[in-house]
Specification:
Layout: H1 2-10, H2 22-37, H3 41-45, H4 53-73, E1 88-89, E2 93-94, H5 111-127, H6 144-165, H7 167-172, H8 176-192, H9 205-219
Antiparallel strand pairs: 1-2
């Protein structure tokens, strides 16, 4: 299993992606961190008054990617081609990989291969200034919302795989509270901006219902 292990360790922890949209992005990132620091997830997802929805989505997309990338990196020794032969979320849901370029037809991959290709694909989007502008005031492409929705749909699959296949290891590492907080923030954001279809969220529907019920209680 030498080659598999070396591939995994080489990419276990990816460098964090920088916040897009220049100084404006950093300002929005500080707003996210401040509201999260107060433990207010409901407020943390809302578009700040007077801000641009695309800039807000871009900054949050990079933030959510960085969070799940770090979380998954801590599980790389458990999520191997031997342990996770397919990218799945329980016995009912299996995910095939396609990117429309190198993989035009959906293919079955092991979970680590799938996540590796997914993270590469997301980084390609984030690093492309024609998709994620690097400076404030540069235009977003007409299909930006579509790209963002695809990123969020696919990031959800990583959460679904972690909860279904690796939650025991998450608990043994003492990461369950952090995982739950990251996923709760993710779900509140996805729901607030209607970024992922309900059918895609089905693998974690019970957990999502619990989180949303708690959200309603906190608002009352």
């Amino acid at each position: 299993e030498g080659p598999t292990t070396s591939r995994n360790t080489a990419k276990t922890f990816r460098p964090k992606k920088n916040t897009p949209v220049g100084a404006k992005g950093l300002q929005l990132k500080r707003h996210i961190d401040a509201t999260l620091g107060q433990g207010n997830l409901v407020e943390a997802v809302r578009l700040p008054p007077g801000e641009d929805i695309q800039e807000w989505l871009a900054v949050n997309t990079v933030d959510f990617y960085n969070a799940i990338s770090v979380l998954y990196g801590t599980l790389a020794e458990f999520c191997t081609e031997r342990n996770c032969e397919v990218m799945s979320a329980g016995s009912k849901y299996e995910y095939l990989w396609a990117d429309g370029v190198k993989y035009k037809k959906p293919v079955r991959l092991s979970a680590p291969e799938y996540v590796d290709k997914l993270f590469d694909w997301i980084e390609d989007q984030i690093d492309d200034p024609s998709v994620f502008p690097g400076q404030f005031g540069e235009p977003f492409p007409p299909n930006f919302m579509e790209v963002a929705r695809t990123i969020f749909k696919r990031l959800f699959r990583v959460y679904a795989h972690i909860y279904h296949s690796h939650f025991k290891q998450v608990c043994s590492l003492g990461e369950e509270a952090h995982l739950n907080t990251c996923f709760k923030h993710f779900i509140f954001f996805v729901r607030h901006f209607d970024l992922v279809e309900e059918k895609e969220l089905a693998p974690l529907s019970e957990l999502i219902e619990q989180f949303l019920a708690g959200k309603m209680n906190s608002i009352r």
